[in-house]
C-alpha cells in the first residue's frame, strides 16, 4: 500500500523498480507468491490512486500491462485476482488501450490449437486460468462503471468465455482441468451478472445471441462425481456454482432488462431448478417464481407451467427420513426451506387463472388442510 502511494508521487523512480521486481518474480520459480502479491498490491494502489484522482496513467500503461500479463495464468488464485483488479481499473481509465489487448488475449487463449501430447492438459489449464483472469477483470471494470459506449463493442469477444472455447465439460475426464474450465464459465457468468446488475445496456442487444443459449444450458448442467475421502465417499456436483450463477442472472435480468428474457423459455428451467437437490438452487427458483407472480402473472397460466411446479414443491414439503432426525440449526434451515416453498404456493394461488389447473388446486388444498403446515401457513398468510 505504502509503496504504491510512494510510486504515485515519483513514478519515474519507484514504478520501474516495482515492475522490474515483478518481472524477476515471474521468471523465478522459487520466488515467494506472497512477495509477488505484495508487489501487485503496489501496482493496484498506483492504478487506483490515478483513477480516484483523475491522474493520467496513459504514459505508464505500456510499461505496466506486459508485467501484469505475465501473471495472467498464475496458479495462485490471489495473484490472478489482484491482476484482474488492476486490469479492471485500467479499463476504467484507458479502455481503448486495455480492451483491445484483452480481446486479443481472449482470442489467443480460447482458439489455441494444441497438439495431442502430454502437454495438452497443462496448456489448457494455463488457458483456463488466463480466461478466468480476463473475465474477472471485465467484471471488475463493469462493477466500477466503466464506459458503456467503449466497453460494449468488446463484449461479444468476452462472452465467448461462456463456452470457453467449446470444450464439453460433460465428457472431460481430467478432474483438475474440468474444475478449471468450470471456473472459467463461472467467472464469465459473474461477468454477465455484473453487467446485468450494474450496466444492463451493455448486454441489451447481446442477450439473445451471445448469452441466453449458453445460460439455458448452464442453468441445467450437472457434473456429479464421487470424492473418496478415505473412511467414506462424498458425492459432489462441480456444476452447482454454474446453476446458481445462471439463476442469479435470470433473476437480475427479469428486474433490470426484462425485454431481453424469453420468459416462456425460462419456465422449464424453473421447474427443473425447483426440484434441484441443492437448497440454494431451489431458493433461487422460489424467488424468481415469486417475482413472476407479482410482475408477470400471465406467464404462469401458460399451458403446463403451474403443473410442472406442483411436483417439486410438493416434494420439498415432504419430510424425508433423514430430515426427521434434524435438530438445531439444521432443523431451522429445513423449516425456512419449507416456508419458502409454501410462500410460492400461496403466491401462485393468488394468480388469476391458476386455480383452474386441477393439479395445482388439489395440491394447494391438500397442503392447506394438513395440520403440520397450519402454523407456518398462518404466519405466511399474514405476510401477504
What would you say this structure looks like, in words?
It comes from Proboscia inermis. Pfam families: TIP120. Keywords: Repeat, Ubl conjugation pathway. The longest helix is centred in the middle third of the chain and has 24 residues, at 120-143. This protein has a domain at 271-384. The protein contains 19 helices and two strands. It has 384 residues and is mostly helical. Strands 1-2 form a two-stranded antiparallel ribbon. Helix 6 (95-111) packs antiparallel against helix 7, helix 13 (263-274) packs antiparallel against helix 14 (279-295) and helix 13 runs parallel beside helix 15 (305-316).
Shape: elongated
Count of discrete alpha- or pi-helical segments spanning 4 or more residues? 19
Q: How much of the residues is beta strand, in percent?
A: under 5%
Q: Percent of residues in helical segments?
A: 55-70%
Briefly characterize the structure.
Helices cover 69% and strands 3% of the residues.
Q: Which terms summarize this structure?
A:
3% strand, 384 residues, mainly alpha, 2 strands, elongated, two-stranded antiparallel ribbon
Amino acid at each position: 500500500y505504502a509503496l504504491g502511494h510512494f510510486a504515485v508521487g515519483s513514478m519515474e523512480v519507484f514504478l520501474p523498480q516495482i515492475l522490474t521486481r515483478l518481472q524477476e518474480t515471474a521468471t523465478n520459480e522459487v520466488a515467494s507468491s506472497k512477495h509477488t502479491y505484495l508487489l501487485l498490491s503496489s501496482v493496484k494502489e498506483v492504478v487506483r490512486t490515478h483513477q480516484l484522482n483523475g491522474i493520467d496513467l496513459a504514459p505508464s500503461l505500456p510499461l505496466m500491462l506486459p508485467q501484469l500479463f505475465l501473471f495472467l495464468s498464475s496458479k495462485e488464485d490471489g495473484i490472478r485476482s489482484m491482476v484482474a483488479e488492476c486490469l479492471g481499473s485500467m479499463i476504467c481509465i484507458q479502455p481503448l488501450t486495455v480492451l483491445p489487448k484483452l480481446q486479443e488475449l481472449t482470442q489467443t487463449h480460447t482458439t489455441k490449437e494444441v497438439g495431442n501430447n502430454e502437454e495438452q492438459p497443462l496448456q489448457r489449464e494455463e488457458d483456463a486460468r488466463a480466461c478466468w483472469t480476463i473475465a474477472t477483470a471485465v467484471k471488475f471494470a463493469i462493477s466500477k462503471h466503466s464506459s458503456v459506449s467503449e466497453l460494449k463493442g468488446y463484449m461479444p469477444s468476452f462472452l465467448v468465455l461462456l463456452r470457453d472455447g467449446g470444450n464439453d465439460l460433460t465428457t472431460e475426464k481430467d478432474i483438475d482441468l474440468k474444475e478449471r474450465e468450470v471456473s472459467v464459465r463461472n467467472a464469465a457468468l459473474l461477468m454477465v451478472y455484473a453487467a446485468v446488475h450494474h450496466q444492463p445496456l451493455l448486454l441489451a442487444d447481446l442477450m439473445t445471441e451471445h448469452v441466453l443459449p449458453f445460460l439455458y444450458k448452464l442453468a441445467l448442467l450437472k457434473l456429479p462425481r464421487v470424492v473418496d475421502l478415505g473412511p467414506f465417499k462424498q458425492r459432489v456436483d462441480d456444476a452447482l456454482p454454474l446453476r446458481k450463477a445462471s439463476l442469479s442472472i435470470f433473476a437480475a435480468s427479469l428486474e433490470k432488462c426484462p425485454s431481453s428474457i424469453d420468459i416462456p423459455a425460462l419456465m422449464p428451467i424453473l421447474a427443473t431448478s425447483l426440484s434441484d437437490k441443492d437448497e440454494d438452487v431451489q431458493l433461487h427458483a422460489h424467488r424468481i417464481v415469486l417475482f413472476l407472480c407479482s410482475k408477470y402473472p400471465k406467464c404462469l397460466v401458460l399451458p403446463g407451467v403451474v403443473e410442472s411446479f406442483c411436483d417439486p414443491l410438493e416434494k420439498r414439503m415432504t419430510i424425508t427420513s433423514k430430515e426427521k432426525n434434524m435438530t438445531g440449526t439444521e432443523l431451522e434451515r429445513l423449516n425456512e426451506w419449507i416456508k419458502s416453498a409454501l410462500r410460492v404456493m400461496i403466491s401462485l394461488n393468488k394468480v388469476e387463472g391458476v386455480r383452474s389447473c386441477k393439479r395445482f388446486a388439489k395440491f394447494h388444498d391438500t397442503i392447506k388442510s394438513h395440520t403440520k403446515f397450519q402454523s407456518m401457513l398462518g404466519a405466511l398468510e399474514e405476510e401477504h
